[in-house]
Amino acid sequence: MVVTTIYVTRHAFRVSYTLNTATGEYHTNSPSPTNIPSDPPLAAYGVQQSHELAAALAKLEPPIEYIYSSPFYRCLQTVEPAVQLLGPGIKVRAENGIGEWYGVANFNHPSPAPPAFLKSLFPSTFDDAYKASIIPPQSGETIAQLHDRVAVALTHIIASADAECGSKDTSVLICTHAATLIAVGRTLTGDMPEDPNEDDFRAPTAGITKFVRRQDQEMDVSKRSGHQTAKSIGSVDWKDGKGVAGGWTCILNGSCDHLAGGAERSWHFSGEEKFGTLETVQKILTASAQQPLSLSGQDYRKARESKI
User: Partners of 252 in the beta sheet?
Assistant: First the structure.
């Protein structure tokens, strides 16, 4: 059997942080458990939202059996109450491929904390055996690169869950960020608007978006063999209505019926995010276009160290 349903949520209401675009330095007035200023925890209101979200997720059918999250703390913290309600055996897999979107910059954006440290923060629920399929470039991405990165990550997530679910249909939960959530919706359905700023998939904090798999679209079993590298995944042909893994249909878009405060802090693209002079950013864009998108693990570290 296969994954038939994917639920996607954006992290709950977080503590704010700021960025000095001249220096590339992030700052927050609230300490982060990971000691990364751009990796803040949830605000008290967000913690409340996370419990309301958990209560709603625990009632879904078919029940959630796999949880994939951005490795940033606010996402892992958002799904923690849900993991406790969903029962033993479910752990959270941190997938960098569904992590935060940062615009192209002439400085390095921060990376999330390493898995070993995240395991110390979430000892009973964090799956430190899982290996992320793709690592986004620290210099940031264009909107198009974000979508292609998400398509690669979703290909890996769906193939892995398909291979593990055995003889029953199952559901997956993805917890991510606003821009990435929108990219998830577009790559699953294959519907990329001509204007990327279009407000198509809603991304309120702690909302629920639901996708169901198009019939008879099980992924080829040959593509399910464990961790996939950049060479084995390559690019993913998801546009023009194709969608990742045969395509999905959105039947619930950013629902917040489970939240006492309703829909809040929704977001949509407003053009490219770029930091630095036009000349510098153009050089970064040209260099990034010559690199393979889906570097992972050791390959990524070698590329970063050699400043490719």
Answer: 210
